[in-house]
Design a protein that fits this description.
Elements lengths: L6 H17 L9 H9 L36 H4 L7 H9 L1 H4 L14 H14 L3
């Protein structure tokens, strides 16, 4: 007949394994602040992977591109595609702060903007890095 270890021993073993896992160095690099800000604010609808369109278009290579020109994304608003806006640090920053003030009638609803200037800057820098700019 097999003996079951005492419950206390199981608890100690579980706690030990959890502590070792928590203390063990991770192979994954730590996310940079811009990536964290992007993940927290943008990733629900956007990706930075090429052709990975979601509710919103992929933002891969966005810096330097014309608004509404991402290939393969069918749901741009008329106001965005007709805006003539070229995405650079300034236009991205303003759009992330208040999309409606930059391109009225865009499809970014219910997103109303991000007032934190430092966080916007982190996101823009992250998008620049992902665009190779």
């Amino acid at each position: 007949m097999r003996k079951t270890p005492p419950l206390a021993a199981v608890g100690i073993l579980s706690a030990s394994v959890a502590a070792v896992c928590w203390l063990a160095p991770s192979d994954a690099p730590a996310a940079e602040p811009g990536q964290l800000a992007f993940n927290n604010r943008c990733r629900t609808c956007h990706s930075v992977r090429e052709s990975d369109n979601r509710l919103g278009p992929s933002l891969h290579g966005i810096v330097g591109s014309k608004a509404g020109a991402s290939s393969g994304y069918p749901n741009y608003s008329q106001s965005l595609t007709n805006s003539g806006v070229v995405w650079n640090e300034e236009t991205l920053n303003k759009f992330i702060e208040n999309p409606e003030s930059v391109i009225p009638g865009n499809n970014m609803k219910p997103y109303g903007g991000l007032s934190d200037e430092a966080e916007r800057k982190e996101i823009v820098e992250y998008l620049k890095a992902q665009s190779g700019k």
